[in-house]
Write a structure and sequence with these properties.
Elements: H1 2-10, E1 16-20, H2 23-36, E2 42-45, H3 48-52, H4 65-86, H5 92-104, H6 109-119, E3 122-126, H7 132-135, E4 146-150, H8 157-164, E5 170-172
Parallel strand pairs: 1-3, 1-4, 2-3, 4-5
Helix pairs in contact: 4-5, 4-6
Length: about 170
């Protein structure tokens, strides 16, 4: 956890993909990293099926891109409502603008979700969800600067390949 935090401090803008075969090992490492550094944009890639089966740690659900996008839209709507309530009654332009933002915010949620996912410096995903659709990196090369696989000895070679092909540097743990 310390190595990841220090790496991102020294290399701002780099992206790290952290993977494991099991949700438990992945979330354990994720929580340790996030406890040390909350300044990084982090996402937890997890299927709806896994969430329904309560596989991911409950504290990691809020890091799903769709959860983060939903929270951002709710913050935009609350802020617009707050400003509408305190706006001068004769400022029709401001009122129209704030109402337009409130109307548009929910419609841009899918794009916001995609931007959060592509822009995160820390991406946590099980080896099975390390597909181009789920963890495809932004940028010209589409690669992560560092891929870390926790409990690597427990994974089959094909499972290891899914996250490793997405990185320029690899670290296999355990």
């Amino acid at each position: 956890a310390t190595a990841v935090v220090e790496y991102l401090r020294l290399e701002p803008g780099h992206r790290v993909l952290i993977s494991s075969q099991s949700h438990n090992a992945l979330d354990n490492l994720a929580l340790r990293i996030l406890a040390r550094d909350r300044s990084q944009v982090a996402v937890r890639i997890v299927s709806d099926h896994a969430v329904a089966d309560e596989k991911p740690h409950p504290d990691m659900i809020k890091y799903r891109p769709d959860e983060q996008a939903s929270a951002a839209v709710a913050r935009i709507e609350r802020e617009c409502q707050r400003r509408l309530a305190s706006a001068p009654p004769d400022d029709r332009l401001l009122s129209r603008l704030l109402r337009a933002w409130m109307e548009v915010a929910p419609r841009v949620q899918p794009e916001l979700c995609d931007r959060i996912r592509r822009g995160a410096s820390l991406v946590f995903a099980t080896t099975g969800t390390c597909t181009p659709r789920d963890v495809g990196a932004a940028g010209a090369s589409g690669m992560y600067d560092w891929v870390i696989v926790e409990e690597a000895a427990r994974a089959w070679p094909a499972e290891l390949a899914m996250p490793l092909v997405r990185g320029l540097r690899w670290t296999l743990i355990g």
